[in-house]
Structure formats: structure tokens, C-alpha cells
Here is the input.
Amino acid sequence: MSPPSATAAVAPGGSNREQSIRRTPTIGPSSNELRERLQRIWETKPGLYGWLATVDHKEIGIRYIVTAFVMLVIGGIEALIMRVQLAGPEQTLLTPQQYNMLFSTHGVTMIFLYASPILSGFSNYLWPLLFGSRDMAFPRLNALSYWIYLAAGIFMYAGVFVGAGPNDGWFNYVPYAQFRYDPGLNIDFYSLGMIFLGISTSVGAANFIVTLLRMRAPGMSINRLPIIIWGTATASFANLLIVPAVSLAFFLLWLDRQFHTQFFQVSGGGQPLLWQHLFWMFGHPWVYAIVLPAMGMVSDGLPVFCRRPLVGYAPVALATVATMLLGFGVWVHHMFATGLPGLSLAFFSAASILIAVPSAISVFSWIATIWLGRPVITAAFLFFASTIVLFVIGGVSGFMTASVPVDWELTDTYFVVAHLHYVLLGINVFPVMGATHFWFPKFTGRMMDERLGRWSFWTTFTGFNVAFLPMHLTGLWGMPRRVYTYPVEMGLGPINMVSTVGSFVLAIGFLLFFINVLRSRTRGAPAGDNPWDAYTLEWSTSSPPPPYNFAVIPTVASRHMLWEDQLGETRERSNLEEGFILDHGKEALATSALDAEPQRILHMPDDTIIPFVLAAGMLVLFSGLLVRNWPITAIGGLICAADLVAWFWPRISLLERGPAHG
Amino acid sequence: MAELATATPTPLPVGPVRDHGIGRGGMFALIASEAALFGYLLFSYYYTGASAPTPWVLEAHPALKLALPNTLILLLSSVAIWFAERATRHEERAKALIGCGIAFVLGTIFVAVQMFEWKAKAYGLAKSSYASLYYITTGFHMAHVVVGLAVLAMLFVWTGLGYFTPTRRIVFTNGSYYWHFVDAIWLAVFTTYYITPYLGFAT
Amino acid sequence: MHPLGYLSGSGAQTASVVPLMRFMLIVSIVVTVVIVGLVIWAIMTKREPVGPRSLRTIALEHRDGVKWIWTGLAISIVPLLATALWTVAVLAKTGSVPGAPLTVDIVAKRWWWDAQYSDGATGERFGVANEIHIPVGRPVLLHLRSADVIHSFWVPKLAGKTDVIPGQVNAMWIQADAPGRYRGQCGEFCGAQHAHMAFYVVADPPLQFAQWERQQMQPAFPPATVQASAGLSYFTQHCGRCHSVRGTPARGTFGPDLTHLMSRETIAAGMLQNNPAALSGWVENAQIVKPGALMPNQHISGPDLTLLRAYLETLR
Here is the structure.
């Protein structure tokens, strides 16, 4: 290895032990030699060990995306089976128990195993690139969050495979979820699985927050952050505070079920509504957490295809935060029918109506961006633009449920099913599909097929609307939610058949999309660094980017780093050619929170098997708890404890301690 | 301005120096999350208590003769670890070990006294919603203390091995933050379970 | 056409709520049409007809457009505010039960509805299942309790739903302004047969309602034929643990009160018409008709079933 390019400074009056406390980093241009050296330092070692031990945020991001898409397909198949059962009245394709497990598992899979992880995947891949940084703040924690997600998904689906999947809906109300009414392992798989999965979400959130505050390139002040950063950051702050609520709820339920505690038991002075409060205090902010990052994708991608900056960057950024803040104060709107006092109802109703305001800001911004721009119609653009349409439909149906007396009719009918699918597909799935088209070239170096992309868009869009638009009417005609069948005399047969047909068209749309993804990996046209002439930092790297992202750390002077010459908004220019050369090992730059002034040189950890082992140990632990086998639980606990000691053991390479001496 | 910073670069610290470093943010995030958890536990207490027919608390006057000294013991252990953390700033290893050791011993006493309190209670976990909440909340806290004891033990070992220097000592500082957090949470739990009944809540 | 539909209603509650709902629906449709129109218009009129690889040939735009966001918001605030105010008004109007209500105690059980009436003067009580009669034009206060899990009492054409939660009593009121049979359905997932937990609220003109009440208050007529007597013995022995028929030894409270079973148009919580064939099928093989229901298959022989039916048909 050739010698590093800067001389190490020794602390004044310091000894050998205090070596390299400070260093003035070299500033210069990139070179082939530098890139080769960085490649060797940063690349994941080949083979099985490398695959299990990698801490590369890009590899972790791809894994999240692939796993989440697999979950999307599984959840989709569950939905198709349900739609076949519901295509006509009084059908007996499924028993009520089978149907109840299907609708519950479908919800759990989509909301927890797809909707959040897919956004974590894109954010994981993109954040350091968007920041002009080498990696996330905590690479090992990053790996851990993925392995736990995978393990928790496997854990929950093990339950499904043995016929004990969740069966009380994704919000799992007590008392039905109590042992007395649901004695199988179903709710135990769900409860322990959710606590397990929650750890992944929490550590992921911590990673995003510290990365945001510390790992940006010099000059990337907070008013220069892409909106996806605002979205994921807002979601992460929220997740950190809300995941404990749902984990606690599930833990208390598991205790009630297994150890006869009385948290939710009426006979013991417990409160069934405590479950609902804890669940929805988590659940409502959660639904914003699974759409705000995706809205950020649209806010960052649409401008590229409209050849102009986003209209109203500051209102959109602030609206993102405002939506989440208000989102903390409306959870009771899921409980309007539970017999709450009138004053409480009025307050939460008003707040729920008001929350339309910040959401609307993004919608108006997107329309203005198209209107005042020069839109080029690509598959990505179509997915992003359709988000506007679907968001509005989902938004107005939400507006209708915000009014308490109206909600008392609408709630628990197919009107809400229509609403939730419009917001979840409209503001998560469609943006994700657009994001896939948009960033696929960066991830793989190849373009997706445009023609197939348009076909997949129109099929998906049509299928979705044929399936779900009628459900507003199905709900207004009185069909309740979560019913495995409905009587002939309700007059709901034909409209349900329409929805079923639509759902299969939607499935074909997804199929075309995935065919496009898989084929383009090997047969797509070469992309180059910046096929869309986009403006953020990731488009200045190669496609795919090298493991170290940036050979020299860029300096940022505006929000549209690659469009500065063309826009002429400011005389300052970002510098991508020359910057800090950090090559004394695996190094990255930390900067200050608000203005991103250079602050510290970081030594980043190498690939390590420790996160994988910890996730495996946790899987053993939770499996032991599930079957109440305390020896297995203890073994799992010991693995976790030993692993954590190894993880936190201070290392010289990470400068966590001085050199060993007597 | 960032442009200036790169044009005329100044020396930057490499890695965590004294008590500043990227790991501190991670510890704060962990503390925020765990604090939220206890927030929800206490919410459960107040919500269930306010909704239940009175009397709901099983002891209108919970015995303070063990709990109050135990609280002081925990507070003292925080003082001890604070003292030890200050000692690491000047690499005064002996003082750091003593402080860390005292914190560990006091923490262990806290756990022992609490387990004794549990055994002395007339009710078990499954008796009522109050009993369940009492045991789970104090139990969660005790679990955090046990984890904290493991942290203190590791800090003791690492200090003994001479790992920490006046500049490279953030691991010790972060560990001490965790211990202080456990202490602060206890104050909230103690007030809720031992003091509010005296103030008339749900009695 | 849609018995559970609520775009129209016939009660004092729905009279307040349906206009607000229609207003919100109209606002929603208008907003959707306008936004979709704007999006389509923007794309169609501003589009650049180049392919995806030629984006860099299009010069960048940078006209400011923030004012359109504020314009859109200003327009949006109006219907939002109107809705909020109208909502509070409706809540205030329908919040408390008007006048002198009739009180009925409802107990929701998996998967049927128990309704208890009491005579204010004499304190006598009677219970019916799944067919709740009320007088037209008079408010009815319902006290909702659950015997097991959370259910939700919902008769769409008369009022919105109120959850029925164990450990608390939720109150709601309804008032039918026209006579009729109003279908209701459980509105909160409660297990295997949530889909078949229906009921009927039957609004009778006041005189008819009084007559119904008097009739229901009577205990069952003693069996008049030998066959019916044998049926009663069989019933008491095999069904009496769960079901009650006032005036006989059968006093079980787990299942519905069957004292005036034949006065009901439907059985099995609104699932089946109350005719001999359906009744036989239900009694014999409840698990086939309603899998998971808490009434087990009876394994009853042909002759015994005939006797039992003979008795049940006397319960008018």
C-alpha cells in the first residue's frame, strides 16, 4: 500500500500514545492511483464471509429493496386470493378462519414488511451519495438493521407457514387477541415478531438521524438537502419515539397471554382501550413515516423530468415536518367510535381536518412544478405524476373520515379500505415504482426498458383504479371491512366482481414491472453517470458508484449541484473535482449539524460478521420465547450478550482507545 | 463558509476526541428511544388508573422505608460514575476504577433491595392491572439497571486494561450517560408508583 | 337495494349527518376532478416531445411559482373550515338524546345480539335476540355492553356505529322517523363469524310497538299437543343449558332467548330466513351453516328433530 498523502500531525508536547489526534487533511483532485487505493480499502471482500459481513450501505440498501419487493409480491398474492373469495356473495373458497388469517397477514406484510423497509432500502443506498459522504454514520448498525428485518420477517412467516399467522387484523385489538379467544400461536408469532422487527426500525432511525446531523459534505446546509432527506429524517425522528409504544403494547399483550397479567383484562381492572391508545399513538405517525420519504422521492424526481427546480422547496420541506408533528396529535381519529367524550372528539376531528393543509402543500408544489416546467414523459415521470392523482383521491377520502359523525358511518367499511389503499399505493408504491425507474440506472449502470415501463405503468394504474375506486361506493353501500363473505341480498356482488377483476389487472401491472427490473439488469442499455441530466450529487458518481462513493469529498454550494451553470441562480459553484482526500485507511468526514462545516475525520469500521451473529442470536432468543423454552431463550441471550461485548470492545482502528500498554 | 474551510483547511480531530464523537449521537438516540418506552409505561399506569374503579392502587401508602434509601443508593451510584468519568479525563486510573467499582456495587445493592421488595409484596404479577403494571415497570427498569451493570463491568475492565487516555475516552463517557439515564428514569418511576398514591391518585 | 347503505337514511340522526356527508362527498369529487384536470392539462400542454435520453437537450426552467402553492392553500382552507364548523354543529346537535327515550339494553356476544327491554312501571324484563323493535318517532337510548370481545352496533340507515367494549357501557340513541325493517351489522372485527353478525331494528308505529311489547312480555304458551310436550322435554334437556324459554325450566343465558322465536323473521343473527327448513338445518348443523359459531352441531335424530320442531313452532 502506498503511503498516505498527508503527514500525520502529532499533538503538541504529546507522546507516541497520542498519535494522530489532529490532522490537516490534504485537499486535491482525484487520481487513478487514489481511486485504486480507495477501492482496495472500501470494497467488500468476495465470498460468503464478505456477503454476510458487508457494511457497505449500497449493498445493504439493495438487500432491503429486494427483500421488500419479495414481501410486496407475497402480500399481493394474499390479496388476490381474498379478492377471488370476495368476487361473489356467499362464496366458500375459503373458511372464515383462513380468510381472517389472510387479511391480517396481508396487512402486516404490506405495512411492516414492505412499506417501511422499501423506503429504508432506497434511503440507505442514496443518503450517503446525496450527502456527498462515504457511508452512513454507523455502518455496522446499518447491517444489523437489515439482518434483523430479514430475521423478523422469517420469524413471522414461519408462523404463517405452520398455519399460525396473525388473524386479528394488523391492529390486533384486544380482547379478541387475548389467549382466551385466540389460543393458538398466531398472536404470539405476531407479538414477538413485531417486537423483534421494531428493533430494526429503531436502530435504523438512529442511524439516519446521526447521519443527517453529522455526515454531510461541506456546504450542505439544511436548506440544500433533497426532500427525500427531509422525508426520511422526519420519519426517523418519529420512529425513534413511536416504535417503543407498539413494542410495549405487543409485549404487554404477550405477557397477558402467557403469564396471566391483567394489562388488558377487564376482569383484572385492565383496559382494552389501552391497547388502542398505545397502538394508534404508534400507528398514526407510522403511516406518515411510510409516505413522507416516498413523497420526497417524488419531490426530488419530478423536477428532473420537468427540467426545473421544485416549486416551493422551503414550504415543501417545512410541510414535511409539519405533517409529522400534526400526525402525533390525531391518533384518536382511529377510535372515534369507541365512546369518547364529545370535547375530545371535536378536538381530534378538527386536527384531522387540519392535517390536510401541509399535505396539500406538496400536491400544489408538484402541480406547479409540472405546469411551470417542461415535462418530458418517461415511465418514471408517469409514476411520479400519477402520485399526485392518487394522493388527492386518498386525501379526500381521508378528509371525509376526519369528520366524526360522518366517520361513524364510514369507519370499518370498504370506504376506509378504499382510502387506505389510495394513500398507501398512491403515496408509497407508485412513488417507489417511479423511484425504481429513476435510480435503477444509478444502482446497476443500465436503463430500464422505457416501453415496457409505460405498459407496466398504464396496466398498474388502470388495474389499481378499477379495483379500488369502486370500493368507495362499496363502502357507502354498507359493506363492512374484514368480512369473509357477504349475503346475496346486500346487492354487493357486481361491484365486488369489478374490484376483483381490477386487482388481477393490477397484479399483471406489477408482473410487467418486475419483469422489466429483472430483464434490465442484464439487458438494459448502458446508462452512464447521469442519463437523466439530474442535479443531485449521486449523479456525479459512476453507475454504479464505487464502494467509496466519492474519491474526494465534494463541497456543496447550492441545492442543485449539477445544474448550477445552467440555472445561474448563484455565483458560487459546488466543487466536485477537488476536495478533502481522506485516504489514511477507511475514512469519512463529519461536519456540523446546521451549516455542514468540516468537523472531524472519522475512521469507519471494516466488514464484520458481528451484526449478522447478533441478529441470529436474537432469532434464537425470540424463538425460545415463542415456545416458552427457557434454555433456548438463555442461549439466544448469551449469544447476544457476547456479541454486544465484542461489538463495543474499544478498538484502536476506530480510535476508541489508546494503544495497549502495561 | 464551507468553501473557505476547504480553501484554507485547519487541522481536524481524527476520531472521537475527549467526549466528542459520532458515537455520542448514537447513545443519545438510544436514550431517547428508551425514555419514550418508559413514557409509554407510565402513560399506561395513569390511563389505566384513571379509568379503573377506585381503589385501584393496591397500596394507598406504599412502603418507602426500602424504596427511598434505594433511590438514594442509585443516585449515589450516579455520583460515583460521574466521579470516575472525571477521573478518566486526566487518566487517573485508580480513581476511575474506584468510582466505577463503587457505582457497580451500589447498582447491585439497588437490584438486590428491589428484589427483596418484590418478594415482600402481598401480591403477584397476575393479581390485577395495577400489580401487573407495577412489576413490569419496575422490572423493565431493573432490566435496564442490569444491562447498566454489565456496561459498568466492561468499563471497569477496559479502564483496568489501560484503554482510555485523556483524548480517547468517549466509550467511558457514553457508558456513564447510559447509567445517568437509568438513574433519571428511576426518579420518574419512583414518583409514579411510590409518591402519587400518597397524593390520592386512584386510591 | 342496499340494505346497509348510508347515503340515505330515515332517522333523526341520519337526517343531521347525511347532508354533511353529501357535502363532503361533493367537495371531494370536485377537488379530485379539478386536480386531476390540472395535472392532465399541465402534462398535455407543457410536454416536451423528446425521449428519455434527450433530457439534457431541454433548457432548464426557473420561473418562480410559490404563489400558486399559497393560492391553492387559500382555496382549500374554505371547505376545510366549513367542514370543521359543520362537524362541530352536528356533534352538538346529535350528542345528547332528545326528549324522553325508551331504553333498551344491548349485549353483544359472539356472534349475535341480545336486547333486553324492561317495563318502567313493573320492572319486568324480557329479552329478544337479533330483532330489536322500536316505536316510530320516539328516541331510543341504547346501552351497549359486550359479553366477550369488542363489537360495534351499526344500523346504517338510522345512525353511525358505536363500538361495544367489554368493561364499559357505551350509550347511543337512535330514532326512526318512518316504519320499516332496518338492517344492522356488527362493525368491528370480532372473530370467525364477524361477517354474519347482523340484526334488524324494526320500527313499528306506536300502537303496534306496544302490542309487540305486551306479546313479548308473556311467557311461552304451554305445549298443547303430545308431540309438542315431548319436544319441550327434549328442548329442556338438550337446549336448556344455553337457551331460555320463559315459563319453562329452560333458563340458559349463553345463547338467545327463544320464548317468542317464531315472531322473528330471521334467525342466526340475520343469516337465515325463519322458515322450517332453515330452522331445522340451523338446529341440526349450525357448524355447516355458520362455521365457528358457538352452537355445536346437535347430532339429533330425525324423530327427535321432528318433535323439537313441533315445539319450537309453538313459540310465537
